[in-house]
Amino acid sequence: xxxxxxxxxxxxxxxxxxxxxxxxxxxxxAVKAERCRRNFYxxxxxxxxxxxxxxxxxxxxxxxxxxxxxxxxxxxxxxxxKRYDLIINVPPGTTKSTICVIMFxxxxxxxxxxxxxxxxxxxxxxxxxxxxxxxxxxxSEKFQNIFPYIRIKRDKDQKGNFRVEELIFDxxxxxxxxxxxxxxxxxxxxxxxxxxxxxxxxxxxxxxPKEFSAESxxxxxxxxxxxxxxxxxxxxxxxxxxxxQQRLHQDDPAGHILAKDHKKLKHICLPGEIINYGHKVSxxxxxxxxxxxxxxPVRMGTGVLLEMEVDLRQYGYAGQVGQxxxxxxxxxxxxxxxxxxxxxxxxxxxxxxxxYWDKAGTEGGGAYSCGPLIHKLKNGKYIFSDxxxxxxxxxxxxxxxxxxxxxxxxxxxxxxxxxxxxxPGSGGKESAEATIKMLAGFKVxxxxxxxxxxxRADTYxxxxxxxxxxxxxxxxxxxxxxxxxxxxxxxxxDQVDSAAGGFTKATRSGTIYxx
Length: 515
Fold this sequence. Notes:
Blueprint: H1 3-10, H2 15-26, H3 28-38, H4 40-47, H5 60-77, E1 85-89, H6 96-111, E2 116-121, H7 124-139, H8 141-146, E3 150-158, E4 161-169, E5 175-188, E6 200-204, H9 215-228, E7 241-245, H10 253-258, E8 265-269, H11 302-320, E9 339-341, E10 350-357, E11 369-377, E12 382-390, H12 394-412, E13 416-422, H13 426-438, E14 444-448, H14 453-465, E15 469-472, H15 477-486, H16 494-506
Parallel strand pairs: 1-7, 1-8, 2-5, 2-6, 6-7, 9-15, 10-13, 12-15, 13-14
Antiparallel strand pairs: 3-4, 4-5, 10-11, 11-12
Helix pairs in contact: 1-2, 2-3, 3-4, 5-6, 6-7, 14-16
């Protein structure tokens, strides 16, 4: 032991710390390497400028996310069954991509050179850009000085698909062996993944913020996550999926996965501010780290958030900043203004009653067929007393419509009428005509819809918001109200669409077709 080392021990330094200081004097790169290997957050500090020219701001959430990512990786490295998949919801501009898909795989390689990754984003361009940053980090002079035993495999060096090698050195610094290391395959959500598997699956922003309202985009992303990515695990018991995104829709991939109660998940949710979105913070203990209600008061202060609200508008701000894809006041519908009543009004108070059908033909899944029953009251208000809703085949649906019509007429008699939504095109016309023919003897008429769902719901939403819509207490209330709460970004829209159609017909007089 050197005199210097003995002196440090006498000064109450532990032997380990003293040895570290001794090594720091003679082998500075070795000490840096060891500190980086032990701590992902320290690795980010050390190599920040190898991936960014921007001045870093080390807000508390960065350290927290690094720690959580490190826990996941260490469990994989030990070959232990995963405890959970990880979902992280944070606003844009919070270093999420740098942490999770640029620097995280590289940090894993300095500890476990064999580790393989599959990484995806909503577009191939974005995914390849992230991969290029990772590859350039490994190639950088600083990285090679500190971690000379990791390099990109020369004959497997493409942005979208590259491998690393682990070099084994002797005491003289000569390479004695080259071991095949891990890899990173980068792709876009919706693309094929045949032949590629990962020890860890990484998904960053699976939905394009400019296209999140398109149902086809949501369906593609969720199906890909469920059916394609889930099959690309090297070991299904061990391989975790890490999904990081800003919330965009009730049924975006994060919402879609969180709705699966049987999934083993850890959900980290960090809204940009907790003045309106404190209820979304997860784990709840993280609220203590917010400063004056802000996640990051330096980069996302009050002024920045106000600008974001103007640019994103209420729905975009609620999802991307609040991580709650519905505005705090309820969006288009102020659902707190629905009045739930225990009893129906007396029959003489009802001017007329109608059932409005929005038809679908998917049994056991997909869209719902829906027929709300609405009554126009003589006092100017309206009451929904029932919603008949199901995922039926065409045959079962027609049977439900006829059975329901017969039951309704027994109660409401001559005051009862039926409307059937007629979709554009010859197929929609034929479907409506078939239902009308089946309902021979009822007061029934087709409704030829033209405007989109949001436009059709506009007039109806005004009456809801002014408290003129009553709901008869029933088991259907909760699903009905929740769909209105999230509209137009709700997973299903059939109840709002049919309720709006029924309300429109209840407010307008017209010729009733007698079947």
